[in-house]
Design brief:
There is one protein chain. α2 runs antiparallel to α3, α2 packs parallel to α4 and α4 runs antiparallel to α6. This protein is mainly α. β1 and β2 form a beta hairpin. It has a domain of 157 residues. The chain starts with 46 loop residues before the first helix and ends in a 66-residue tail after the last helix. The longest helix is centred in the N-terminal third of the chain and has 29 residues. The protein is built from six helices and three strands. Helices cover 40% and strands 4% of the residues.
Length: 277
């Protein structure tokens, strides 16, 4: 009859680990994890902003309203241009219509006044559109640009239509020989028609960069390889706790002095033996 071996010296075939979980799988027990209420996934951080943003149809309508409102302001531009533009005097000698001042700069002054008015209307219309349609989107910006071009064209047409007649010969015959009359209001540099939309785009871009809130930066681990991951431990086991160098693990008794008469351990780490008493 032999004595039973301790558990540490038993064969591997006799040691059967109990890896069967004590809890039933999900959905087996009526009150198990399958019956627990599941939390809905957290909403996207930008979901609120996306819901608040207008849809495509609303954005297009806002852009159309901006285009019409800015274009209508072109009539005011034409009236101001007619009022502020310098006059070019003409005179008839009975055979031809001549300039009273052949060295005058009335034509340059007419284009310059239209240019300054276009810049002023663009600098005013952009803040108004930005304050009223701050969340309009790209359609509002396109409507502002196209409205500036259309407003400049309407202002040009309004000024020339309300100004002196373009039939210079009939006007000279009506006023008589030697009588000074005003030349028709005309544009000679058609590039000034772009002053309004260019100024509006520049001011709107500056206001958007200064006063529009920026999107928050995403939060997360920015390390190259992500957060450190530990190797999984077997089921039912506890990972060993690391102990500092030179310390004794918990539950182990510190080494005491050797009994009298015993041989001290030998080795590289053994203390030197002293002389016996």
């Amino acid at each position: 009859m032999t004595a039973p071996l301790p558990p540490s010296q038993q064969p591997a075939s006799e040691h059967v680990p109990n890896d069967t979980p004590s809890t039933p799988p999900h959905g087996d027990a009526p009150g198990g994890p399958a019956a627990w209420p599941r939390r809905s996934p957290s909403p996207h951080p930008y979901a609120k902003d996306e819901e608040a943003a207008p849809d495509v149809a609303t954005e297009v309508r806002q852009g159309a309203v901006v285009l019409l409102a800015v274009a209508v302001a072109g009539f005011a531009l034409g009236v101001l241009w007619l009022w502020l533009a310098p006059r070019i005097p003409l005179v008839s000698d009975g055979t031809a219509v001549l300039l009273t001042d052949s060295e005058g700069e009335g034509a340059v002054g007419t284009d310059g006044v239209f240019l300054l008015l276009g810049l002023a209307f663009g600098a005013v219309s952009a803040p108004v559109v930005f304050l009223l349609q701050r969340r309009g989107g790209i359609a509002v910006v396109v409507g502002l640009a196209l409205g500036g071009v259309l407003g400049s064209v309407l202002g040009w047409g309004t000024g020339t239509l309300l100004g002196p007649t373009h039939d210079v010969v009939a006007r000279a015959r009506a006023v008589g020989e030697g009588v000074t009359f005003d030349a028709p209001l005309e544009l000679h540099a058609y590039g000034v028609l772009l002053a309004w939309p260019v100024a509006a785009m520049a001011v709107h871009l500056a206001l958007t960069a200064l006063f529009t809130p920026h999107d928050p930066e995403p939060e997360g681990d920015l390390t190259p390889y992500g957060p450190a991951r530990h190797a999984p431990t077997p089921h039912g086991t506890t990972p060993p706790a690391s102990t500092p160098h030179g310390s004794t693990p918990s539950g182990a008794a510190p080494p005491g002095p050797a009994p009298h008469g015993s041989t001290p351990p030998s080795g590289p780490g053994a203390p030197p033996s002293g002389s016996g008493a």
